[in-house]
Design goal:
Blueprint lengths: L2 H24 L14 H29 L4 H25 L5 H5 L3 H24 L21 H6 L5
Helix pairs in contact: 1-5, 2-5
Length: about 170
């Protein structure tokens, strides 16, 4: 089998796996999705890039809201900024691990920009979900975000000392 044909078959199989594997997890493979109705690769690349830009804008909005909400908690803000910088490095490193060839278009073909945008969107939507959970923590979640210094523990101080000791 010709080496070039073999590479094209691998690329098509890879693209199929990416589309089938990631679209359902993003919740975007829905009826009426305009990116799925596009026929040219250039338009598909642009559509998925636009979808990623929207996801990135949502992420930045959630991040800014967190910074504003907890502006009086400098320790939290510093830790959040460190975590966000680390997440950005992770995102970029993960992308590079999936598409590790130096010449991306040569190695992965014209579908590469679409695949890259789909993966970036997926990662960004997940991170946005995490930031939004921090913005609006679920009541009763004792393991979730607890920032405010004026918040009291859910266990009254007296109840810890009132319990009998276990022999």
């Amino acid at each position: 089998m010709n080496y070039t044909i073999f590479n094209e078959i691998k690329l098509c199989a890879f693209a199929f796996i990416v589309f089938v594997g990631i679209f359902p997890t993003l919740g975007i493979a829905q009826q009426g999705d305009r990116c799925l109705d596009i026929r040219s690769q250039t338009q598909m690349n642009a559509c998925e890039a636009e979808r990623y830009q929207k996801a990135d804008a949502d992420l930045n909005n959630a991040y800014r809201k967190l910074l504003l909400k907890y502006k009086d908690e400098p320790q939290f803000i510093a830790k959040l900024q460190t975590a966000q910088r680390a997440w950005l490095k992770f995102r970029d490193a993960y992308l590079d691990s999936i598409y590790f060839k130096k010449d991306k278009l040569q190695a992965y073909g014209s579908v590469y920009p679409t695949c890259k945008s789909i993966l970036l969107t997926h990662l960004t939507v997940e991170r946005t979900r995490e930031l939004k959970q921090m913005l609006d923590p679920e009541e009763g979640d004792v393991c979730g975000l607890s920032v405010s210094s004026d918040e009291k523990s859910s266990i009254p101080a007296s109840s810890a000392s009132d319990k009998p000791s276990v022999p």
